[in-house]
Amino acid sequence: MPDSEVVILEAANGVATVTLNRPAARNALSPELLRALYEAVSECERRDDVLVLILTGADPAFCAGLDLKELASSDVLLRASAASGAARAGAAGKTEKGALSPPRGPFPPRSKPLIGAVNGPAVTGGLELALACDFLIASERARFADTHARVGVQPGWGLSVLLPEAIGLRRAREMSATGNFVDAHTALEWGLVNHVVAHEQLMGTARAIASDIAGNDPAGVGRLLETYAAGSLLSRREAWRLEADVAAEWLGSGHGRPREVARRKQAIIERGRSQIG
Asked: Number of folded domains in the chain?
């Protein structure tokens, strides 16, 4: 897919960087941007040379949520939903590499890790984009807010599930009921983000972590993340059973052969020594 004006896709060394590129509008979500974002992630899922994705925004913001200027003058909510829905219809909940979870949230079904590199404010729909990533790295300039109630709309990409899962129910209720902003360091303390770094170090840190992921067995990473996702929808007892079933299926399908495991284990030992040393 060629770069669009509103989403830029770059790939190198197994890592794809998807950049929301409406900086003058603080990367606000328009139907065009939503469609381009969905298509970019779908392309990354199809490409064999992409193992890990990074989602970020063109400075100064990560994403300001729905484009309120369009919302005030058009049926942007309906068109945004249609843009996402049309792309979903083509995905049909399955990729060439096998069955995945049913489509939920702003992205197509995917098996590859997605890191959110939050470079600035992530507000409402932008917060939902961030929550839909596997984990987050934040610039010190990042801020987070859920202003659905202030705008007068309801979340539809899983915020009421994913936000309390990340920071706890009471904190999530406070964020949603007040619409107040949370700074990057508070987000780290609460567990919303994994790391906070200096702004100029954000993409380097994200790419270094992505490179660590890309050095693992891609099928193993994808299956483990899928187990996390599926287990989060189950009771604790059912999630334990799911993991056992997946482990048995994995071995039965020929993965985890002793010789390959031994080879990888030695590489892990050497890597650990280099990290500690």
From this structure: 2
Q: How many CB atoms lie within 10 A of CB 272?
A: 10
Rg of the chain over Cα atoms, rounded to whole angstroms, equals: 19
> What SS3 state is found at 3?
coil
Q: Write the pLDDT tens digit of every residue in 151-208.
A: 999 999 999 999 999 999 999 999 999 999 999 999 999 999 999 999 999 999 999 9
Q: Do residues 185 and 74 both lie within one domain?
A: yes
Short-list 96, 92, 131, CA closest to 114: 131
Phi, psi of 53 (to 5 degrees): -115, 145
269 and 157 in a common domain: no
Nearest to 167 by CA among 151, 140, 186: 186
Instruction: Note whether 71 and 77 are within 8 A (CB).
Output: yes
Q: What domain range includes position 71?
A: 7-214
- Let me know whether 23 and 136 are in one domain: yes
Do the beta carbons of residue 127 and residue 158 sit within 8 Å?
no
Does the residue 98 lie in any domain? yes
Asked if 82 and 178 sit in the same domain, the reply is: yes
> Can you give the pTM of this predicted structure?
0.86
| Token output for 263 | 């080879």
